[in-house]
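Consider the following assembly input.
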Amino acid sequence: MRTASPRTILVWTLVALVGAAGWSVLALSRGEEVSAAWMVAAALGSYAIAYRFYAKFIVHRVLKVDRTRATPAERLDNGIDFHPTDRRVLLGHHFAAIAGAGPLVGPVLAAQMGYLPGTVWIIVGVIFAGAVQDMVVLFFSTRRDGRSLGQMAREEIGPFGGAAALVATFVIMIILLGVLALVIVNALAESPWGTFSIAMTLPIALFMGFYLRVLRPGRVSEVTLIGVSLLLLAIVAGRWVAESALADTFTLEPATLVVWLVAYGFVASVLPVWMLLAPRDYLSTFMKVGTIVLLALGVVVSLPTLKMDPVTEFAGRGDGPVFAGSLFPFVFITIACGALSGFHALISSGTTPKMIQKETQIRMIGYGSMLMESSVAVMALIAASIIDPGLYFAMNAPAGVIGDSVQSASEAVANFGYSITPEELALAAKSVEEASLLSRTGGAPTLAVGVSEIFSTVTGGGLKAFWYHFAIMFEALFILTALDAGTRVGRFMLQDMLGNVHKPFRNVSWKPGLLLTSAAVTGLWGYFLWVGVHEPLGGINQLFPVFGIANQLLAAVALAVCTTLLVKSGRLKWAWITAVPLAWDATVTLTASWQKVFSSDPRVGFFEQRAIYQDAIDAGKVLPPAKSMDDMHTVVTNSTVDGVLAALLALLVLVVIADATRVCVRHLRDPAASRLSEVPYVKSELTVPDGIWATKAEKAEQAALATAAPAAPPSGPDSARTDGEP
Amino acid sequence: MTGRGPRWWRAVRWYVREFTDESAYDRYVAHARKDHPCAAVMSRRAFERKRTDRQESDPRQGFRCC
């Protein structure tokens, strides 16, 4: 054990003090407005401590990563999917793959309970659950040649648990796609500016695809530059269209947008990858990374004050208009991806383990990327908390609650305990050049308003409308990419499952099977999208909790696989590092599912809701917010579907957890009988640094290698080079 | 992969090429020369075609999530 130098001790004491100061101000301030700087301080201070101490402890004491052991990238290097990738590049890849709409949308919705519960869970959750899950999955998958989560579940737990995990993943994928599509519909409905800009991304992407395929193959950065310039032009041109005679053409009702989106989803997923998916992926990755960097700079430069209460009354009462239910368990369900995301396990066990150079780098790639994602969630929460709470609630409450005029909205907001005048509501919409901001649920428009406030203080007040539509474009772009890519992954899973029944389905290029499964997957998420748009009780209000539960249940599956692997690989003593987050996540999520299924509060429990509306139908009555008998029947059908789904998902995950427990107990009784499918040790020939910056010892090691073998330049820019830089 | 210009410019250029996977072809050529010196090396056009078409057969490669 080496002792720390006085300088190290001093530095880390300072970091701890910064974090502690942030937390104290956030927790103790009552009544006065707090600067977002304290939230940033609390987050960054806590992340630094967690990364330096907790993550390091897990890597070296629990997982016992081995610097001398060759990773799959080194052993199976084929120059294509298996190849040792520079750690800084892989950090970028991994982060770009895990960051999406989830961490932006969830915290915005969770702001209805105030900024404090959200901040606490985003930071504490990521440190002890989310980042641990990502890193441990990455570790075990790296030791298994990059096996997927599903394969690991099948091999390490058993065919039964594995099958349950597979079905759960498929159902979760469908709900995810439906809810993401709903977020875009709510952002683009009745907005000619937004709709035109997003529509333009299609010709832009098609042009980029043609350029890369025919004109100049492989020149990705130049085509991305061209594409992004065209994209910015499309955002600017959206305003001209909105002010011209063409405006009506691009002013679409939600129901029309649903038809367009479903048609788009189907066509995009059967077109060749090079035409649409690949080029749009370049665009959306650029916009995603670029906007996140801009937002971080904007928050730090403008340091806005938080106008939302630290904890609102909805936290205790559970009757919030954005989503129903009390703080426990629904804040955790709603924040989802920013703190703990089951979907990340699919990335950590797919592409990344095939590219990592050294086991020792999993702390930086797995844990580090997730800390970055969590900071994105913190920024989304800041953006939602700096706008006027009155405006926040007017934007996020369903139309059934606040009506469709600024007057009725203003009154409804007063009933929630906040105030905003009809004039202020109209002015807010006008400043971002939208017809109305009422009931623009789904989180994306609220985030866009917050982002436009932050950016316009930096760039001067005039550009507010541009920044609003820039933010909408940024979210819609990568949601569209997710729809396309997600439909393909869902189709792949379905083809695989159907292949067990009818062999030809297994062949992924068998055209009838491809069209059929694509149509099935688009049809399934299209159903949820349709339901969400026509839901009298508010689509986001009803569906977002189901999405959150689904995502958190997938995390439970991943944590169950990790815990089983820790036990089976002789790390029982340390199994709590994933078992405790698993217990917490399972408690939260199963409580939420239980309440969604059995609660006697009709705002929360789907079946209670169903019963009340069914009784009213039998009595011939129409209950608000439903406006007609048709609405009443819609509510009954939707609550039944949502309720059954919540119950089904919970059951599937209980099966996985029970099966995992069985395997663990069996292993403890008879360790010799259990099999561990870890790839045997092979000695590594690579010398590369562990973290972003090479340490002194690592530099010396590389210098020694460079002088010993100057004639054989290994792959990677800094392996065996003296400077550690390209 | 040295190129011209100041050091920071080369570093940025290197990072962008790696991050966008524009360097995939160079990597493939180096790999092909080293392991199979006698086999013919694909043209860049053919290689890029093959690379995007691979994603078709397994969409889980390069999947982005929520």
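Chain B has three helices and no strands. Ask yourself how this observation constrains the way the partners meet.
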